[in-house]
Amino acid sequence: MNMTGGVVYRPPYEADSLLLQVTLGCSHNKCTFCYMYPDVQFTVCPMEQIEADIEKAARYWPDADRVFLEHGDAFVLSSNRLMQIADAIHYKLPNVETIAMYASIQNIKHKADAELRSLRNCGINGLDIGVESGLDAALKYMNKGHTAKEAQEQLLRLTKAGIDYSFNAILGCGGADLWRENAEATADLINAVQPHLLFIGTLHAQPECRLYKDMRSGAFMECTCGQLLDEQKQLISRLDLKNTYYFGSHPSNLVPMQGKLPKHKQEMLVAVQEMREQLRHQLDEYPVRGGEGSVLNQ
After folding, report:
1. pTM score, whole prediction
2. Angstrom distance (rounded) from CA 95 to CA 99
3. CA-CA-CA-CA torsion for 239, 241, 246, 248, nearest 10 degrees?
4. 209-227 per-position pLDDT tens digit
5. Which of these, 178, 171, 65, lies nearest to 125 by C-alpha position?
């Protein structure tokens, strides 16, 4: 509703959710690989605007049962503001069960345990978190603003508060030299926190971001197709999860797939190996990409 600030982004699994703008842009907006809000100044939307949008949504979609708050990291809002928004949503849209949004590790860190529990009681759940990696060297280069240890601490706090979340990880963000280390450290972090959902994408760059310039200059060495497949195999092999949904259907991935872990682990490893066979003559090449990082040379 009332979206401004360019293209609107939301996770693929929020396709059927009501989108409600509560902020403009991203409060961090410094990730090396990100091109989502290059020229958008972060702004908090006035409560009057948010309430007017909720009123409009109630007229056109009165049966909505899930709301996704936009833009980049709406969880940066204070707990009081988030609860105010949640109350307004529930008042006008009584069927809403879940209020989801993008969040960062820093967003979580700045909220006390009692605040997290109160937010969960208001229906705030299903946070989408760009953790990206468990390797500190990769996190530092990607300018995420958190370490692997901080990510583990904050994600465990969410779990303690009863808040489900998506752990977003990026294959290839350790570059060609650290693909194995990136896979192993990321798997170890995922195992430590046992996320409800694991979202897997593959590193790609658009001209608007610093990563694009670093790839072109050689400052960052992109992974080849073979290295990306080896990294994905190493990651999945090392995962030891009790009940996590693996969502790896992003178009940037060489092997798009979904499934439950640990149930479908072996099937996933077979799929990676089959793609390796299919691309056996292209393993030393780099992925050719289209829009949103979609792979064109499969």
Report:
1. 0.95
2. 11
3. -10
4. 999 999 999 999 999 999 9
5. 65
